[in-house]
Write a structure and sequence with these properties.
Layout: E1 2-7, H1 14-21, H2 24-27, E2 31-36, H3 40-48, E3 54-58, H4 59-67, E4 77-81, E5 84-85, E6 87-92, E7 108-111, H5 117-128, E8 138-141, H6 147-153, E9 158-162, H7 165-171, E10 175-180, H8 181-184, E11 191-195, H9 197-202, H10 204-223, H11 226-238, H12 247-255, E12 270-271, H13 278-290, H14 300-307, H15 311-319, H16 340-345, H17 366-384, H18 398-448, E13 452-455, E14 458-465, H19 469-485, E15 490-498, H20 503-518, E16 522-526, H21 530-537, E17 547-549, H22 552-557
Parallel strand pairs: 1-2, 1-3, 7-8, 7-9, 14-15, 15-16, 16-17
Antiparallel strand pairs: 3-11, 4-11, 5-12, 6-9, 6-10, 13-14
Protein name: ABC transporter substrate-binding protein
Organism: Polyangium mundeleinium
Keywords: Cell inner membrane, Cell membrane, Coiled coil, Membrane, Transport
Length: 565
């Protein structure tokens, strides 16, 4: 039996991906199929319709899915946290560094999902700074891989980016880091490893082996030094689990490098302690109430215990020597675990509703409900991968027309995704080809004008071939820099193999001669052909002409005052 596991390609999934890359699943006798999901809603659909055995999923989304807070409930279990910390508020470069939440009033901000730690930590940070996150800003859901593009297009002014996309945007100059999630709550939970009902109910031994493999990966990641974590990042990227273009950013995030020159925080940007403590679930449920997602009152502790199963991961962590015996709650300021609802009601901008609206009764007949369920089930299959629909038949009624339209949409999406993959493969091949061409051009430029010290204070610059404007500028720049850095007294330019009758080549010779004098070096020309000599003789400024000698031995041996102009 192959276990089907879905994940979103962010650094939070690192323990799951590292376990796969290192072969931990095979060592436990497990066959695992890992697939990327396009969004967190896709992950939720797969869990809800029992299409996967386990999933990398946001901690609040797992809680909302398990309790049916957002649509259909699914009897899932959170068996491990995947990570702590790991998100950063990055705003567009045009806004500059944001020093206080009030500077974001009126802005549009992105979060990975409405049920995410990024959403709740951002709301809490804004509220502490006097900004009502429900009124003073606009918060939109954006899948993490799309966040950089949306920021570049101006669709959002900033976002709570998970790694490695936060570092990727900052490195490329597309945004400015303003606040890291650990500044709000150091050691906060983020993502989880959640199990579907069939796995933990029907195959507990496989569920235990899967959990053990992932926690062992977490223990190994926790023990690594920065260089080890860089190697781990390269391994999961090499296996194709995360995009190649974010490899450098992933290495920095895992290794704990400063995000930018102004980053005041220490190296603990990502942690991998595994225990999903019930206290975390209590806090999350209270935040759902605070921001209007969950009306009425709940038994916070009982509800959290129904989803968050802490003991198996804690026992594994203790056996592996990990320091994960208690929840990290030092930064949960102003919150009471004895009275969660009272704490959020006393917090600023609380939008809790005391009464839950009644659920409207279903007026559809049972056969129609069954057909709708089949439609939803088929849509859930799309999140795992476009299914092979084959030939489908539909009844001639309203639901049949809906099924037909959805069937056509699924086929169109499958074709579009196939075309997109082909386009991306071609684009990637084109990018690699451009990189190879640029590397070849750089090598040609280097070989076409190599600078070599031949005597103390004397550099030799042989020129070969045609010299155009771009090449002339490059030669001039490198020659001047080398003369300055090496304190050269003389630069011998051998033009035996160069074409010196073009305007650009003649201009280069004159500019280079004048510029070298300004940095204290003399320019000598060697190997001037009769044609080049006639072209140089037409210069309107004879004083700017460099000294010329017949061959290299004369240039090396003759004293300065013995060389004729």
């Amino acid at each position: 039996m192959t276990l089907r596991i879905v994940y979103v390609p962010i650094a939070c999934s690192m323990p799951l991906l590292y376990a796969a890359a290192r072969g931990f699943f095979e060592q436990k006798g497990l066959s695992v199929e890992l697939r990327r999901a396009p969004s967190w809603d896709a992950v939720r659909r797969l869990l809800t319709h029992d299409k996967v055995d386990a999933a990398h999923v946001l901690a609040p989304l797992a809680l909302a899915t398990g309790l049916g807070i957002d649509g259909r409930a699914a009897p899932i279990r959170v068996r491990a946290l995947q990570n702590q910390n790991g998100s950063t508020l990055v705003v567009a470069k045009t806004h500059g560094r944001i020093a206080a939440p009030r500077e974001l009033a009126g802005k549009v901000l992105g979060v990975p999902h409405r049920f995410s730690m990024q959403y709740y930590l951002l709301c809490d940070w804004l509220a502490r700074g006097g900004v009502n996150p429900l009124q003073d800003v606009t918060i939109r859901e954006v899948p993490p891989p799309r966040m950089p593009r949306w920021l570049a297009l101006g669709r959002i002014d900033g976002a709570m980016f998970p790694e490695p996309f936060a570092q990727h945007v900052v490195d490329r100059g597309g945004g400015v880091d303003c606040m890291q999630s650990r500044e709000v709550w150091q050691g906060h939970p983020c993502c989880t490893l959640s199990f579907g009902p069939r796995l933990w109910r029907e195959r507990p031994e496989r569920a235990g082996a899967l959990l053990e493999a992932v926690v062992e990966a977490q223990a190994e990641l926790e023990r690594m030094d920065p260089e080890g974590r860089r190697a781990a990042a390269g391994l999961v990227v090499a296996r194709g689990y995360l995009p190649v273009e974010v490899c450098g950013a992933l290495e920095k995030g895992l290794a704990g490098d400063p995000m930018s020159p102004g980053d005041p925080l220490g190296p603990e940007r990502l942690g991998f302690a595994p225990t999903p403590f019930v206290e975390y679930g209590v806090w999350i449920l209270a935040q759902m109430q605070r921001w209007g997602q969950l009306a009425g009152d709940v038994e916070h502790l009982a509800a959290a215990r129904e989803i968050f199963e802490a003991e198996p991961a804690r026992e594994l962590a203790a056996r592996l020597g990990m320091n994960d015996a208690a929840p990290r709650l030092d930064d949960v300021r102003g919150f009471s675990f004895d009275d969660p609802l009272g704490a959020v009601r006393a917090a600023p901008f609380c939008a809790h509703r005391a009464e839950r609206p009644p659920s409207p009764p279903c007026s559809l007949p049972a056969p129609a409900v069954d057909r709708i369920q089949r439609i939803l089930d088929r849509l859930a299959d799309m999140a795992w991968g476009a299914p092979d629909l084959g030939g489908s038949t539909f009844e001639d009624d309203e639901l049949g027309e809906l099924e037909r339209a959805l069937d056509e949409s699924i086929r169109a999406r499958a074709f579009a995704e196939e075309a997109l993959v082909e386009h991306m493969e071609l684009e990637e091949a084109h990018t690699r080809q451009e990189a190879r061409i640029e590397a070849q051009h750089a090598l040609i430029r280097e070989l076409g004008a190599p600078l070599a010290p031949v005597l103390p204070g004397v550099l030799l610059l042989p020129l070969v071939g045609r010299i155009d404007r771009a090449r002339a500028a490059d030669i001039e720049e490198r020659a001047l820099r080398a003369a300055w850095e090496r304190s050269a007294r003389r630069v011998i330019v051998d033009v035996t193999g160069a074409r010196l009758i073009d305007d650009e080549a003649l201009a280069l010779v004159l500019r280079l001669s004048r510029a070298l004098r300004l940095v204290g070096a003399e320019c000598l020309l060697v190997g001037v052909s009769p044609e080049a000599a006639r072209a140089l003789a037409t210069s309107h400024d004879p004083a700017a002409l460099p000294r010329c000698v017949r061959d290299l031995s004369a240039a090396l041996g003759a004293p300065k005052d013995a060389i004729p102009r």
